[in-house]
Structure formats: C-alpha cells, structure tokens
Amino acid sequence: xxxxxxxxxxxxxxxxxxxxxxxxxxxxxxxxxxxxxxxxxxxxxxxxxxxxxxxxxxxxxxxxxxxxxxxxxxxxxxxxxxxxxxxxxxxxxxxxxxxxxxxxxxxxxxxxxxxxxxxxxxxxxxxxxxxxxxxxxxxxxxxxxxxxxxxxxxxxxxxxxxxxxxxxxxxxxxxxxxxxxxxxxxxxxxxxxxxxxxxxxxxxxxxxxxxxxxxxxxxxxxxxxxxxxxxxxxxxxxxxxxxxxxxxxxxxxxxxxxxxxxxxxxxxxxxxxxxxxxxxxxxxxxxxxxxxxxxxxxxxxxxxxxxxxxxxxxxxxxxxxxxxxxxxxxxxxxxxxxxxxxxxxxxxxxxxxxxxxxxxxxxxxxxxxxxxxxxxxx
Length: 378
Ligand code: HEM
Known about the structure:
Elements: H1 3-15, H2 18-41, E1 46-47, H3 48-64, H4 71-87, H5 99-123, H6 133-143, H7 150-181, H8 183-195, E2 199-200, E3 203-204, H9 211-215, H10 218-230, E4 236-240, E5 245-247, E6 250-252, E7 257-261, H11 262-268, H12 310-326, E8 329-332, E9 340-341, E10 347-348, E11 353-357
Antiparallel strand pairs: 1-11, 2-3, 4-7, 5-6, 8-11, 9-10
Bound molecules: protoporphyrin IX containing FE.
C-alpha cells in the first residue's frame, strides 16, 4: 500500500464520522425529496430500480462530492458510469468492442469528467456553505502532511461512487418493494414518525430530521435491519488466507482465496426464526434475534475490511423510508411483483413499476393516512 493510499484509508473513516453525517443529512433529504417529487409528477409508472440507480448516483455526486453539475452533465456522467459498471466484471480480453474495452474507455471518460469537476472544486473555495466528503478527503490529506495527487483523488472518488452506487440502489429498490408488499409495516412506521413529532399532516416537519433523532427511531431501525437481512445487496466477499487454519476438519492453506457468504449466513443462522419471512419485529426489543453472536448478521461484511460507508448507507435508507412514509400514496403498477435476482446485487428480474402520487412541486395533495391504505397501495 502506497503512502497516499494509507492516508486515503485513514481519512475515509473521517468522511463517515457522526459529525460529517450530520452535515450531509439536509442534502440527502433534499436529493430524496426532489427525486420523489419528480417520480410523483410522472404521468405513468416509474421503473424503480433504474430510477433508484440514478438517485444513488445523484446522491454520490451531489452529497459526497459536492459537484455542481447541470442536469445534462449529470445525466451524461451517469450514462458513462453505467457503462463502466456494466462492463466492470467482463472478461479481461482487450478486443475492440469487447465489454472489457468499453469498460476501460468508460473509466477513462469518467476519470476525465471527475478531474474537471475536482479542478473546478479546488479553484472555487469561496463562499462555500457545505463540506462534502471530497472536501474532507482533500483537507485530511493536507493534515497528514501528504497532499493527495490528482490521480489519488480521482481514484478515491471513483471508489466511493462505485461502492455506494449498486449496493444502495439495490437496497432502496428492495425497500420500496417491501413497503408495497407490507402495508402494515408502513403504517407502523408512520405511527412511530407521528409519535415522535416527525410527521404532521403527512409531511415531514421542517428541521425534524437530525442524525440522533433518526437513530432513536427503533421501529425504523428494525425495518432497515430486516431489509438488509433478507435482501442483503452483496452476496459475499473474498479474503486471502494469511495463516493456515483448520475448519470442520479441512485444512485451508496460507495464500488461498476464500469466500464468505453473507446470504448463506443469513439463510442458515439458527438465531433467525422463519428466515424467509419479512418480519422487522424480529429485531424488536422483545425478541432481539440478532443478540447472539457477532457473525450471524453481516450485510456490511465483517472484520477489518467491512463496509466503510455503512452508517451513511443506513442514514440514506432511513431518510428514504421516512420520506416515502410521508408521501400520500405509491402503488404497484403491475398485477404481480417481479421476481428477485441475487447477482451481481439483489435486484428485480423484470421491471418493478410503481406509480407515485402525493408530493407535487408545492407539496400539495397530501391525503390522510387512512385513505392511503388500499391493498397494495400504500
Ligand atoms: C446498503 C448499502 C451498502 C451495503 C449493503 C454495503 C456492503 C458492503 C460490504 C459487504 C463490503 C465488504 C466487502 C468485502 O467483504 O470484501 C463493503 C465494502 C465497502 N463499502 Fe459498502 N455497502 C453499502 C454502501 C456503501 C456506501 C454508501 C459507501 C460509501 C459511500 C460504501 C463504501 C464501502 C467501501 C469504501 C468499502 C471497502 C472497504 C475496505 O475494503 O476496506 N458502501 N460494503
């Protein structure tokens, strides 16, 4: 690991500190509200997975990197990024038109776009009222007496977007699907929000969202935990064996690559009853099915290489759930729900088409919660 990379590893943890999350929260809320307004103003249905991908990309660009791009520039960068992601796991054969080649080209185009945005950011330091993750990255590099090079900044930026993008889009889509499938869960969530003075007449009260307030919402926490148990976006990870060890009578030699499975762990951990049922109450204070053992529940991986962005991811998903709960209605636009595919991340096999109503550009037309409970309409 180079000195620059070492610094990056140290400052990544600063990017996701409690203090930093508090700064990001109003921006996260704004990006989500804007997106839900656009979805609601759509005359037809919304392809949720595709739109959730755009939402998380926008989140990464605006909240984490603080780039001020026009919608047109943002859409262009998103298309290039999608091409990069789609081809990232292609075979490493560098033939013209092969996925690998397209992936490399997309990466280069992306890095050029990022360089332009970073340069603009470095030049426009006046009148800034918001500190984003990239600012922290740049400043912390200086603090550690090791100013990051443009290449290191670009790589770290791309790593952040890449790590946040597919996982969070997957979880956001699963969240919407599960709230549609389980109106009682959504209603219980609304009750919790109302009880804590966060919802008033169906709207999130201004200034009501703070990191500590969100953390104190127990039922919301159970919903997100259960979502990430049953629909953990990533199926597992790889590790290199540093020291030969024995497992169930098998010797695993030093130097081997081993895979740990998040999904199999969640499916087989004896602590969970009725593993296939979406039941947020399993994490409630009466049952706390996750209390035994450290490694039964690991949507964000385990050990030293676990997910650095997990607090941000949870904060984003919780804010999305709060904003969805405060909307008047959203309903499935097809007769049945699409099947769910597990790889490369959990996602709907077909399109998850949903109609959103409620928040118009003036935040009008919020109907009462009783009207909102109609079959798969929530
Ligand atoms: C629901 C959303 C997310 C899930 C389920 C998730 C899950 C994971 C998992 C399982 C790993 C470890 C992989 C392994 O064992 O090798 C990981 C690593 C990582 N994640 Fe996340 N992640 C999410 C969101 C995010 C976000 C929003 C960010 C940043 C903005 C992020 C940044 C990272 C980074 C930087 C690593 C690499 C850590 C290292 O190698 O030391 N993740 N994530």
